């Protein structure tokens, strides 16, 4: 399987901005790592949701937070901030 470059290895990236169009940009396309939750350890606190710069976590009916891969860019902030350390960043 081809190994994708990390974001630091990318030579060029950018977004063309017009007011109100950010929802059209699937920032998940940039992702080389993805967060995976161990829901056995999750306490449904929502810290992952509150720290995510892309609002990529969505609260489900069971109150667990699920990832919207269209917008998760794989930055890893959620894994760092999770108080239970139950989010692991894995390569795609
Ligand atoms: S921050 Fe961690 S413990 Fe809290 S809801 Fe997210 S995954 Fe669960
Ligand atoms: S890796 Fe970054 S963009 Fe993806 S869900 Fe976590 S904080 Fe949000």
Counting copies of identical and different chains, the oligomeric state is single chain
**Average pLDDT taken over every residue:** 90
Distance between the termini: 10 Å
Structural class: alpha+beta
* CATH level-two architecture: 2-Layer Sandwich
Helix count, DSSP H or I runs of 4 or more residues: 2
Which small-molecule ligands are present, each listed once?
iron/sulfur cluster
Under CATH at level 1, the class stands as Alpha Beta
Helix content: 10-25%
The name of the CATH topology is Alpha-Beta Plaits
User: Strand-and-helix sequence, N→C?
Assistant: EHEEHE
Lateral strand order in the biggest sheet = 1-4
Number of domain units: 1
- Rg from Cα: 14 Å
Strand content: 15-25%
Largest sheet geometry: 2 strands, antiparallel
3D shape: globular
Low-confidence stretches: none
Total strands: the figure is 4
Explain what you see.
The protein is of the alpha+beta class and 92 residues long. The protein has one domain (27-91): Alpha-Beta Plaits (2-Layer Sandwich), CATH 3.30.70.20. The protein has two helices and four strands, in the order βαββαβ. The strands form two sheets. A two-stranded antiparallel ribbon has the order 1-4. A two-stranded antiparallel sheet has the order 2-3. The longest helix is centred in the middle third of the chain and has 5 residues, at 47-51. It starts with 32 loop residues before the first strand and ends with a strand. Bound molecules: iron/sulfur cluster (2 copies). One iron/sulfur cluster binds at residues 35, 52, 54, 56-57, 67, 72-78.
């Amino acid at each position: 399987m081809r190994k994708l470059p990390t974001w630091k290895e990318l030579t060029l990236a950018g977004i063309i901005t017009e007011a109100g169009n950010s929802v059209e940009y699937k920032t998940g396309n940039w992702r080389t790592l993805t967060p995976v939750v161990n829901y056995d350890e999750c306490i449904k606190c929502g810290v992952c949701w509150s720290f995510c710069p892309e609002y990529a976590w969505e609260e489900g009916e069971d109150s667990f937070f699920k990832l919207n891969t269209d917008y998760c860019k794989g930055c890893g902030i959620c894994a760092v901030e999770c108080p239970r350390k139950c989010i692991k960043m894995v390569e795609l």
